[in-house]
From TrEMBL:
Residues 1-27 form the signal peptide. Keywords: Coiled coil, Lipoprotein, Signal. This is Outer membrane murein-binding lipoprotein Lpp. InterPro entries: DcaP. It comes from Sphingomonas pseudosanguinis. The keyword Signal applies. Residues 26-53 form a coiled coil. The lineage of its organism: Bacteria, Pseudomonadati, Pseudomonadota, Alphaproteobacteria, Sphingomonadales.
């Protein structure tokens, strides 16, 4: 028990005993005062014994603001600004530093029994104006609301200005932290409405959208199990954008079931490894369509080496996977190995305003579904030679954030992906994509972000056909 609390307790006990069991005349005698002081000291020793017993049963450190399952990175794309919906600064660790008395951090939430609860999220509204340079899109495609390079039409005529508005990206996260032994058992369930409309014609009257799972993770002692961001992805490096991701073309972007272990090794370094859900996405020779096969039998393996200190961070991740396709024509299954390496980080700029540079560079073979929301196939199934050919790619992005004055800030970002399709790939397969955007954000109230973003995106096919997207995006987001 801290010295201040000891002195306060002792004074209260002494005063109480004097008022309850003595008269002013008697209390003034030296003998009675000595006896009274002895009683207070005995009560203090008993209280100290109880306090030590309780402290021995409490876990070390404070409950994590985020589930311990999460890697030391901020949560989701585009939430790296001032009003992060999970109330953590950009690049902050998911688990608070261990040590010190066990107590709830300010604003964490509430406690029922031994479990601490925390509810957070945000309401987000978007108004988007899009114009395609080489064609039009189908009704209600995701590409009208998100920066998805594979959805850009090619080979057509210029479209008119298309307007879309919704609040479907609104999100809620429910977290718990329960002391088990000397550590915290944590859970996180997070969901939003960023899925297809629940009914046909959903925008005619009621605009219903389906509530969909984003993450569901449990963590204890460095272990995590559940659906979370892939360990191959460094989410904290994503820049602040109005778009759902903003740099989709060049970033690793996967949420899936995994089992991960993370361990700090000192001096700002953390290592982690995971086994994750496998899924081979292939294309038939000569066909542009991608297909999920669900034939895999070996989990994907990832590892990460992360360094962070004073607002800077650097992440090196690796991926190895065994891809498998079971042909429907009775032939035996074909397999191929895929691998990838990704370097990402955050570098503060010496302006004293909070400016920084964020970047990522990823390359490898057979990692199409991990990069750019699956622009490229993992592999092409060569039906003539009965083999699976991994597809090589290189992708990356960079973003620079600058604070103009107060909370008024801007981010410029650019991203790309280059795909080397094998000769058996369809001429209609995507060969390369790039994207650039600039935005302006302000936070006039706590956790309230108002933003506008201008974006230009480009897509090119193997046969040389190309398409362009121009977009103006207005957004308002109130976190809680």
């Amino acid at each position: 028990m801290p010295h201040f609390r000891q002195r306060t307790t002792r004074a209260v006990l002494l005063s109480g005993l004097m008022l309850a069991g003595t008269t002013p005349a008697v209390a003034q005698t030296a003998a009675d005062y000595k006896a009274l002081r002895s009683k207070v000291d005995e009560l203090q020793r008993q209280l100290d014994t109880v306090q030590r017993a309780l402290t021995a049963k409490e876990p070390r450190g404070t409950p994590p603001v985020m589930a311990a399952a999460s890697p030391p990175a901020t949560d989701a794309p585009r939430q790296q600004g001032l009003s992060d919906p999970l109330h953590r600064p950009a690049g902050a660790p998911s688990v608070l530093a261990q040590g010190g008395p066990s107590a709830l951090p300010a604003g964490y939430g509430f406690r029922i029994g031994e479990t601490n609860f925390h509810i957070s999220g945000f309401i987000k509204g978007d108004l988007i104006f899009s114009r395609y340079g080489n064609g039009d899109t189908a009704t209600n495609p995701l590409g009208r609301e998100l920066s998805l390079p594979q959805s850009i039409p090619v080979g057509g005529r210029r479209s008119g200005i298309l307007a879309d508005a919704s609040a479907k990206q609104s999100r809620i996260a429910f977290q718990t932290a329960t002391p088990i032994g000397e550590k915290w058992l944590t859970t996180l369930i997070e969901a939003d409405f960023q899925v297809a409309p629940a009914v046909s014609g959903g925008e005619r009257a009621l605009n219903p959208y389906t509530f969909g799972l984003r993450r569901a993770v449990a963590g204890y002692g460095g272990f995590a199990i559940g659906q979370d961001w892939s360990n191959f992805q460094y989410v904290a490096a994503l820049p602040e954008t109005a778009d759902f991701v903003g740099v989709t073309d060049g970033t690793v972007l996967v949420r899936q079931m995994l089992l991960r272990y993370s361990h700090p090794v000192g001096n700002g370094w953390t290592i982690s490894a995971s086994i994750e859900n496998p899924e081979t996405v292939s294309a038939m020779a000569g066909a542009p369509a991608l297909a999920d096969n669900d034939d895999d039998s070996v989990p994907d393996l990832t590892g990460q080496l992360l360094w962070s200190a004073k607002g800077a961070s650097l992440s090196l991740t690796g991926l190895f996977r065994s891809m498998r396709v079971d042909p429907a024509n009775g032939r035996p299954a074909v397999t191929a190995q895929g691998y990838g390496v990704s370097l990402a980080g955050i570098a503060p700029l010496p302006t004293g305003k909070g400016d920084d540079i964020r970047f990522m560079m990823t390359g490898g073979r057979g990692l199409g579904r991990y990069v750019g929301a699956n622009v490229a196939a993992d592999a092409i199934y060569d039906t003539v030679n009965d083999r699976l050919v991994p597809v090589p790619l290189l992708a990356g992005f960079a973003g620079v954030r600058h604070f103009w004055i107060g909370t008024l800030r801007s981010t410029w970002m650019g991203s790309f992906q280059r795909i080397w399709n094998p000769a058996t790939a369809s001429p209609l397969s995507t060969r390369q994509v790039w994207d650039t955007a600039v935005n302006l954000f302000v936070s006039p109230l706590p956790r309230l972000d108002l933003g506008v973003e201008l974006r230009v995106s480009h897509r090119e096919l193997v046969n040389g056909a190309s398409g362009m997207l121009e977009r103006l995006h207005f957004t308002v987001k109130q976190g809680f």
